[in-house]
Automatic annotation (TrEMBL):
Keywords, alphabetical: Glycosyltransferase, Transferase
UniProt-listed InterPro entries: Glyco_trans_9, LPS_LOS_Heptosyltrfase
Annotated Pfam families: Glyco_transf_9 (PF01075)
Species in which this protein is naturally found: Helicobacter apodemus
Identification of the protein by name: Heptosyltransferase
UniProt feature coiled coil, ranges: none
Gene Ontology MF term list: ADP-heptose-lipopolysaccharide heptosyltransferase activity
PANTHER family, sorted: LIPOPOLYSACCHARIDE 1,2-N-ACETYLGLUCOSAMINETRANSFERASE-RELATED, TETRAACYLDISACCHARIDE 4'-KINASE-RELATED
GO cellular component annotations of the record: cytosol
Biological process per Gene Ontology, one example term: lipopolysaccharide core region biosynthetic process
Gene3D superfamilies the record matches: Glycogen Phosphorylase B (3.40.50.2000)
Amino acid sequence: MKILIIKLRNIGDTLLITPLFENLKSHFGESTAIDVLVNEGTEGILPAQLIRKIYTLKRLDKKLQKLKGEIELLRAIRQEKYAMALSLTSGERSAFMSFISGAKMRIGFTPKTFWAKPIYTHNLKEKHQHTIENNLEALRVLNIPIITKKVQAAKAQESLNFAIPTNFIHLHLFSRWMFKALSDDFCAKIIDFITQTYAIECLLTCSNQQELEKLQSILNLSQNKPKFLNNLSLAEVSLLNSKALAFVGVDTAIMHLSAANNTPTFAFFGPSGAIHWGPWDNDLFTSTYTQKNGIQRMGKHLVYQESFPCVPCGRDGCEGSKKSDCLLTKLNEELALRTLKDFLDPLLLPLRGEKP
């Protein structure tokens, strides 16, 4: 039994397809070959032990190289003779890849283009529910029992080139979409608040030059100078995060990775909705993100979001500015830090022999 799963989105989206793997193997048998097709640069988040093969779609600038690469990719997929293709991305490209696979059973979210609509043998529609649940619709339409909703991330071996502190809080204050970012000044306040309130080390990660420059600006505003690590692989960040007492960050792939590691996760949300994107607690089977906005929990994880009527808007910043006022000028910093304290107290005060 060969199954191809297609998810052509970002790193966090790719991670949230992983609950399908164990459900498929449970239903069809452990020998089931599960292959995935994802965008290049997202594959490092996937747990290799559950996957036979990973194809990556390269977004090349040079047209000839792009054409050659995609022809080779299509040929490789076609040669596998898949029995089933699950396309978890709405769009014509994913539908076409599903068709090219030659699979007799093709399940996917119905594309808008008229020529692509007949491609799937089983059509899906996105519902107002968590992204994990929408991905699992591919199994429900086939009457495949869902026995787990556990998210699993890649993790590096215990061989990082730096000493991981015994007790620390992991902070990743960036997203590839800067309209999900907090102000540099408030990020500095978060660092100082954690360091001074709990006398514990903060360890920050960032992943590219833009984030590094923003991090330098944050550190210039901070009274404390925590350690930071740049350009770790996703598996290395995962290992680091798995040893943290808690994670604090924004709506980003590393937030989802933290939740997958069962690390208590505190996330600031702006334009995105927690109902769809909140950090998933692997110890639960049903999402508890039911409000449009505001402060919400799912098990050990917490989302902080302002309760403005326009939140979440799903847009790339206010009026297309690439900046979100609900995370910047209109963020209730006092309430946010008080909520963060309520989240961290039960985790950190016992380390000092204090009661929460």
